[in-house]
Design goal:
By secondary structure, the chain is mainly alpha-helical. It has five helices and no strands. The relative contact order is 0.09.
Length: 130
Amino acid sequence: MRDTKASRPAVWRSAVALLVAGGFLAGCVAHPAMTGLPPSPNSRLYAYLIAHGMARGAVMTGQIGPEGLSHLVALDRAAQQATVSALRLQSASANRQADQALSSLLADLPRKTPPAPPDPSEQTQKNRLP
């Protein structure tokens, strides 16, 4: 008799521990509610203006020559029209078209590699007082 009474609290403890563990695991699987602010309807316009500025900078610095200029202008114009259409319509298909046009414009821009970091010994020499 005494063994069954002693084992009941152990069974209850293990059942409660199992329920608590299951609750934690269920919380890990649950999808969180959306937090934060929704994106601005003008975000594609901002993205276009930034991409346009990048294209302009590439032309001004000579990264894009006269042979690639007409293609870049055509991509920029398509991105501009798609962005204005997405602003006006505010539909999923117009947004996808604007995103695709912006991606094409950005993909056509040359990738500039970052400059190599200076040699540490040269940096030490520059920091010395005369």
